[in-house]
Amino acid sequence: MTRKRRRLYVVLLGMLSLATATALVLTAFDDNLVFFYSPTDLQEKALPAGRLVRIGGLVEEDSVARSGDNGVTFVVTDLAHRVPVVYQGILPDLFREGQGVVAQGSLGPDGVFVAREVLARHDENYMPPEVAEALKKSGEWRPAAGQATGQASGSTVQ
Predict the structure, then answer these.
(1) Above pLDDT 90, what percent of the chain?
(2) CA–CA separation, 10 vs 17, rounded Å?
(3) Contacts of 131 by beta carbon, 8 Å cutoff, 6+ apart
(4) Calpha distance 86→113 (Å, rounded)
(5) Which of 158, 134, 145 has the alpha carbon at shortest distance from 43?
(6) CB neighbours of 91 closer than 8 A, spacing ≥ 6?
């Protein structure tokens, strides 16, 4: 084997190794990425079944229903669209109706979001940036108070 040919084989093996490593890293990133959606985004985009996503918005007034086995159902709204959410577990202490929430899970085929984790905002002025941006797009954001201008009630358009 000539010196040129050996060098070519080493370069090709290096390029193949780099391509394999890049493919593995990109596959790992794809599996671990969790995208954020507002209820309006969920209505507009078709998500693959079982895709792990985060939804955020306000907990609709009079929508929280608890069952005896730590189960809870509620509705998340961005004041334009609504998404029913089912969660099995203990909710954060700051979780309540009319407040901002982010839920991580997947959208079921029936349109109900099955949450694995529910996060509530931590004080009266904080709202997750994604939720604030969704409310700004809908025109329902009051920057001084950090809250929506309308009520998070069942009167929203679905």
Answers:
(1) 30
(2) 10
(3) 38, 56, 57, 58, 78, 100, 101, 102
(4) 6
(5) 158
(6) 72, 118, 120
Q: Considering the entire predicted model, what is its pTM?
A: 0.61
**Residue 76 near residue 103, CB atoms below 8 Å:** yes
Nearest Cα neighbor of 107 from 41, 42, 33 is 42
Residues 82-122 have pLDDT tens digits of 999 999 988 888 888 888 899 999 988 888 899 999 988 65
3-class SS of residue 47: coil
Please state, in angstroms and rounded to a whole number, the distance separating the CA atoms of residues 29 and 35.
Answer: 12
> What whole-number distance in Å separates Cα of residue 63 and Cα of residue 101?
13
Give the closest residue to 146 by CA, choosing from 90, 99, 86. 99
Tokens matching residue 66:
């608890």
